[in-house]
Amino acid sequence: MRLDKFLKVSRVIKRRTLAKEVSDEGRVKINGHTAKAGTVLNVGDIVEIRFGNKIVTLEVLMLESHARKEEAERMYKIISEERIEKEEKDGEINEFL
């Protein structure tokens, strides 16, 4: 299943177009490698998504083309959520995990 479709069906991201934008901006990694919207996901893949000042890491448990809200929550397991603190110094932004 395509990454953008998984993010939408699993309700990690509400709209597929937004999932595509986030992916194509390089804010999503699969198993440590930057992924595009069309990257094919497999069960067991580790997905890392950067949302503003937060990085969410999740494991793919199921791949379904359609899912109700209750089923969507079972498609993945959140491994971690990390906040990124931004520090501005001399016009340069440094990010810390």
UniProtKB/TrEMBL annotation:
Function in brief: Key component of the ribosome quality control system (RQC), a ribosome-associated complex that mediates the extraction of incompletely synthesized nascent chains from stalled ribosomes and their subsequent degradation. RqcH recruits Ala-charged tRNA, and with RqcP directs the elongation of stalled nascent chains on 50S ribosomal subunits, leading to non-templated C-terminal alanine extensions (Ala tail). The Ala tail promotes nascent chain degradation. RqcP is associated with the translocation-like movement of the peptidyl-tRNA from the A-site into the P-site.
Highest taxon, organism lineage: Bacteria
GO BP term, example: rescue of stalled ribosome
Subunit structure: Associates with stalled 50S ribosomal subunits. Binds to RqcH, 23S rRNA and the P-site tRNA. Does not require RqcH for association with 50S subunits.
SMART domains: S4
Annotated ranges, domain RNA-binding S4: 1-61
Keywords per UniProt: Protein biosynthesis, RNA-binding, rRNA-binding, Stress response, tRNA-binding
Protein name: RQC P-site tRNA stabilizing factor
Organism of this sequence: Salinicoccus kekensis
GO MF term list: ribosomal large subunit binding; rRNA binding; tRNA binding
Database matches in CDD domains: S4 (cd00165)
Similarity comment text for this entry: Belongs to the RqcP family.
Record HAMAP family: RqcP (MF_00871)
